[in-house]
Amino acid sequence: MPPKKGAAKGGGKGKAAATPAKGRGRGKKAEEPPSEAAADAPHPEAANGAAGSSPSSAGGAGSPPGVVHTTQTKVKAPALSKLNKAQKAMLSEFRSATGASDKVGLECLAEAQFDVEKAVDHFFTSGAADQAGSRGGRRAAEALYRRYKEPGEEHIGVDGVQRFCEDLGVEPADIVMLVISYHMGAAVMCEYSQEEFVSGLVKLGAETLARLRAKLPELRASLAKPDTFRAVYAFAYDFSREKGQKCVQLDSAVGMWRLLLESPHAGPNAWPLVEDWVGFLEARHANRAIAKDTWQQLLDFIRSVKPDFSNFDENSAWPYLLDEFVEHMREKRAAGATA
């Protein structure tokens, strides 16, 4: 998605996110340590990197984006026969949430010092779920949400979105992030509520990083379909608005038009006159907002009017800016022809 105007790293907080899903109980600590190594088990957040560092860079050269490796010794999982009653209950809860085997469950629980919720998060964010062939569904998406959410807040903010992009191996300005945000139904740029993020991933059938990464080419290619492009284009208007504003500011609209209409993935929806349109607006419409009607009808204009305007009907009810643009371009071309 295009960088949000004025969005500084770690910047201001926006709307409150949806209430976290209830019933996601944290497993109680066992009364006895599961093994000698468990007391020294690394905290799962340490494996994911500090808030200000790049999780993807932690993997080192050759690591696929989103797969984090550490130099710490892997914690030895206790034998199943050595578990006490409380630990067996935790293993059962873990397996119920993930569908994983006893072996994988014991490894994740040992890594998380027998904290069930952290063990489940580790399973879904470390790549273990994909190796085990587990989809995970909503629980997997919730684990990813907790990985990126702002500390002490109930939403994913600018820093979390940046780390999400790094793990996916894409830039925030990659058009695929706009497509993902569309499927999430995100209300605000550079921010996802829990419900938007989790439900969006579940709807896409991409509840883990590996699955979402594998789906990126398909999401980009979907823009070549007229109906999908129109839906994403319509979504982009409200997505680009500043909070509390009814219209999109010109600089934000220009960024979105360039992203959408000049994209190599736009296919037949691309428009060769984007820079002419932008130049016209910056000269004639500077410091003014773009109305939603103008935004929506521009796409109809692009699809129905030829770039040379030979079939432009002056009696059609186009927004006045489009009428003025056609007049401007005709004058510009006429002047160029006589020069």
UniProtKB/TrEMBL annotation:
<dbReference type="GO" id="GO:0045116">
    <property type="term" value="P:protein neddylation"/>
</dbReference>
<feature type="compositionally biased region" description="Low complexity">
    <location>
        <begin position="35"/>
        <end position="58"/>
    </location>
</feature>
<feature type="domain" description="DCUN1">
    <location>
        <begin position="136"/>
        <end position="330"/>
    </location>
</feature>
<comment type="function">
    <text>Neddylation of cullins play an essential role in the regulation of SCF-type complexes activity.</text>
</comment>
<dbReference type="InterPro" id="IPR042460">
    <property type="entry name" value="DCN1-like_PONY"/>
</dbReference>
<dbReference type="GO" id="GO:0031624">
    <property type="term" value="F:ubiquitin conjugating enzyme binding"/>
</dbReference>
<dbReference type="InterPro" id="IPR009060">
    <property type="entry name" value="UBA-like_sf"/>
</dbReference>
<dbReference type="Pfam" id="PF03556">
    <property type="entry name" value="Cullin_binding"/>
</dbReference>
<dbReference type="GO" id="GO:0097602">
    <property type="term" value="F:cullin family protein binding"/>
</dbReference>
<dbReference type="Pfam" id="PF14555">
    <property type="entry name" value="UBA_4"/>
</dbReference>
<keyword id="KW-0833">Ubl conjugation pathway</keyword>
<dbReference type="GO" id="GO:0000151">
    <property type="term" value="C:ubiquitin ligase complex"/>
</dbReference>
<dbReference type="InterPro" id="IPR005176">
    <property type="entry name" value="PONY_dom"/>
</dbReference>
<dbReference type="GO" id="GO:0032182">
    <property type="term" value="F:ubiquitin-like protein binding"/>
</dbReference>
<protein>
    <recommendedName>
        <fullName>Defective in cullin neddylation protein</fullName>
    </recommendedName>
</protein>
<dbReference type="InterPro" id="IPR014764">
    <property type="entry name" value="DCN-prot"/>
</dbReference>
<feature type="region of interest" description="Disordered">
    <location>
        <begin position="1"/>
        <end position="69"/>
    </location>
</feature>
